[in-house]
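Figure S7 source data.
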Amino acid sequence: MTTKRKKCLTEFQLKNILARGSATEEEIELMREMFQALHGVNYFGMCLHPQWLLKALDDERDGIEEDETEEVKAWLDREIAEEFDPVEYAKTNPPITIICEEPDNCRSRQKHGNACRCIRENFRNQADFKDWQESKLRELKDTITELIN
Ligand SMILES: [Zn+2]
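Tokens for the predicted zinc ion complex:
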């Protein structure tokens, strides 16, 4: 089965258009398609403003976005439980790239901070995450020291 992916502008591109205050022919065409997908032919006569598309993208995401509340709670609870009843686990040392590249763009992080999906998937608990952060800082410090020596 092949599903043709609908061509549309990303949030980033839309924000870019807003920031520039202008759009290219191609962008305008894509915006038209997005408006049509959203509103059918009713989009005729509508103000084709990127802001509306951004809002629509946002609403759509809120609708389909998985509710992580339970997962976050379970993850945080485990740390508390294990404070009283420690569990042996192997420390991991994943590369720095596992963390949301742009924390501001991680919806999970906006909602759950240091319990965001990227962190939960890689660390047993917040203490584990903090240890890792510190070890990464040490690595960085060592590298810098090596460079200046
Ligand atoms: Zn994240």
